[in-house]
Each structure stands twice: as C-alpha cells, then as structure tokens.
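Two entries, shown back to back:
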Amino acid sequence: MKQTKKARIERARDVIDRNVIGVPFNSADLLALQEATRYLMEGAKRMVNPQFPSDPRHLHIIEEGGSDWIAWSWKKAIEGSNPVQEAKKVMRFCVAPDLQEFRYSIDDPECAHCGSKEHLTVDHVNPPFDDIANEFIEAHGLPEIVDPAPGQVVNQFASIELEAAWVIHHAERSVYQILCRSCNSTKGKR
C-alpha cells in the first residue's frame, strides 16, 4: 500500500521521538526510518542540533557504505528539495542571532498564549516569517544558495551583500513574541 508523504513524516517522527539523543537506533527502528524516508543507511541517531538546539528531531546517520556520522535531513529525504524552502531555511538561519538576542533579553520568559515556561521559542507575531521572506524574494528574486563554508553546517547566500540586505529587511519588519513549542506549532504560519 502506498503511503502519503504526510503518513511517512508521521512515521519518521514516531521513530525519532522514541529514541534517546546520542544512542544509535536499534535495527527495527533503523528499518522503520529507512522505510519512511526511502533512504538506505547503516545507522541513525538523534543528536543535538548545534544551530537550533531546540530542534527535537535532528539526526545523524552513517550512509550506506560510509563510516562517519553526518548530519542528515530526514524531512528533506521525504519531501524532496524545494528551492524556495531551501532559501527560506538559509534566510531563517541568517536571522537566528536576532531571535536569540530577543529570547535572552527577557528575564523571566513565558509563553504569550498559555503561560508555560517549558520549551520556549521565539515567534514572529505579525507579519509571519514567511510573509517577510516572501516580500524580500519578490523584491530581490530568489537568493542563490551555496554549500556551507568550511566549518559551517548550513548552506549560505552566494552574495554577502544580498544576505546583509535580507537581515536588514527582516529586522525592519519583525515583531516577536515568546511561545511554547506547542502553542507555536498550533499557530501555524498565521
């Protein structure tokens, strides 16, 4: 029976969530992950994402025939590569320091919706991040994205000038709030 991408994503999430950070998946979970992502690998384990420590599903794998653990996007394996999504991922990474600065400027942060103090994230109140990014792309075109520089793990803008223009555009348009992970995920892209 053919599974939808949504069902495969849910299956991969279930497998990842039941594993402990830093511990390689057992053979049954490795097989289930391979089936969900349709990607062959010799090992997988959850790891702390150095760029986004609140990312609960960051994976490292050993590729088939490989010997080293490497960071790997299970979601990209399922959904495929989308140039606009890739650009927005890089755009989000470029402004992450601004969001972190906001987060750490608040002495006793709590979720603006439910008051929780657990699993807090910084959220764009209005306009949403996607709207800000879409405005920039409409004005400047889709930025060219290149492989990471040595020592980096995330792709980057090909043009440092365009990256600087993006950071300024984002700073001029962004209004933030603190939300817990649960409230942020139920909010969606509104």
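entry 2 starts here
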Amino acid sequence: MVKKQDRYREAGVDIDLADRLVDRILPMAHATYRKGVVGDIGGFGGLFSPRMAGYRDPVLVSGTDGVGTKLKIAQTIGKHDTVGIDLVAMCANDVVTCGAEPLFFLDYFATGKLDINVGQQVIKGIADGCRMAGCALIGGETAEMPGFYAPGEYDLAGFVVGAVERKKILDASKTKPGDVLIGIASSGLHSNGFSLVRKVFVEERGYSYKSRLKGLKTPLGLELLKPTRIYVKTVLEMTRRFKIRGVAHITGGGITENTPRVFPKGLSALIKRNSWKPQPIFKILQQEGGVNEAGMYRTFNMGIGLIMVVSRADAQGAVKLLKRKGERVYIIGEVVKDSSGPQVIYDPPLE
C-alpha cells in the first residue's frame, strides 16, 4: 500500500530528489555572488540591492530567453554542461547592449522526470555563465512535470536583470554617417537556427552527431554544442573607454535583422562581407542544406556574434584594445545615410 505522503512521488514528482539537487547546486550559486546580493537562495524571491552594488541613479534593464532546440542535441549526445552557458549568454548579451551590467540571474529548469546528475550539469553551466557575465545566480525553479516532457527531455529559460546609470545608457540617436562597425567573432552557431541545423544535418543528410565532416576539427555534435560567447565584460570595458554609439547582439534573425535594431531612422549599416571569414560550419551548413546567402545572413550570425557602432575617431583604438583582450575583431563596415533605413546593405550584395 502506498503511503499518503508518497502519492505525489507515485504520480512522478519526487520532492526529496529536488531537495537533493538544491543541496548540490548551492555551492555553485554561492560562487557567483557579488556585491548587492541580499540573503540566500531558498526564499520566495531573490533579493538584490543596486545601491549596495554601487549604483546612484540606476535604470534597470531586464531580459529573458532560452536555448531553443539546441537542447535536443545536448540531450541526444548526453552532454549537458554547456547549454547553461548558452542560457546566460542569450540573456546577458542582450541587456549589455544598453550599456547595462548584468546584476543577477534566475533560471527555470523543467523536465519530465528529474535526473539529479543531469540537473547538476545543467546548473553548473548556468553558474559558469554567470561568473563569465559577472552576475549572481540568486534563484530559480526546478519543475518536474511527468507526462509533459518525454523521458530524457528538459527545457530551460533564463531571466536576467541588469543596471546602468541613467546618464550612461547607450544612445543610438547619436549615431551618424561615417561611424564604424566593429564585428567581434562568435564561437560558431551560438544558439539560433538549430531547427534548421538539425533538419539539414540529421533529417535530410542523415549524419549522426559523431560524424566527422571535412573542415571541422571535432565531431559534428561537439561543434554544434560550442557555447555562445559572453561579451559582457568586453562591452562594459569598451563603454568606459570609447564612444560607443550602439551594440547589436546577433541572435535569431542574424546580421540582417539584428543590426538595424540599434540604428535611428535615416541611417543604415553598410557591411563589407569580405572583411571577415565565417567559421567553416557556416559554409558546410549552407552547402549541405542548399541555403542561399540571404537565408544564411537572416538566420545565423555568420561568424560575428556582436557588432559595435563606434565613432570613427575611436575605431582604431577600440580594435587595438579588443585584440589585446584576445578577441578576434574586424572592421566590417560603416554607417551610411539611407532614407529607407535602418537596414543592412551588403557589399557585395547577397544572392
């Protein structure tokens, strides 16, 4: 006979297992703490004081995102320790485009049946990402939902809050013709377009994630799971040193859709496509999937994970500093007048 207190476990939800996971991840969360954290994980809400973090007139900037179907690859090959970095990156890179410093992060981890070892790997990646972004992991939710997710499946969502002093918010209205576009390299595909990636490589071409494709240094699965770059500390240092007009995080929508989001009306981005060389995975994907150039640039980052708009006077100094910091960086174009803008004008044009 099942004890009354065990009926929830019988239904597929093990509260004791979730408590054990919390015990494992607490040290990881504590390792991300920074000035401003108030209290500890375990309450109904995470507490943070911008004043304790050194802000006088802070404007809060929030962001939320997920990892998308890239998670299916992690679940298939059993590698779960990097998708948490992707999760933080997708959120933190967005808020830093305003000039905001990410302050704290919360995660939502949902699964059909909790595997404590998988959960620990996922949260480890989230904590690693938080340290890279300089924000504190101050809370989250683990939801065990039997019958909702298939065995071995889970989903992730992340939520970040950052702050920027009001007078230091990046102002795209100051952008003017002749300003320079600096592209900072991505690590690869990052976390967008994976429904197409999986369709091309697995469904259509029949590759396994262990396949070794010509031009790739690692098996296909490991190439696809390279975590999204976190640009937070780089961008914040650049805003302190140079006149940064705007910052575009190149996510879903690719270069084509994301770059114009930081441009005022009447201006466009003239991008020289030969000024950098995308990583091999992009060419392989384009050839294997029969994707035209316009589709590639509207779906993927094409090797550029972040674009900064800087004054022409600051461009060379900005590039030198970025290179000293170990970034692969390129001057990829400039701001031009365009009555129909904002948009991206490619040179040479896309086919």
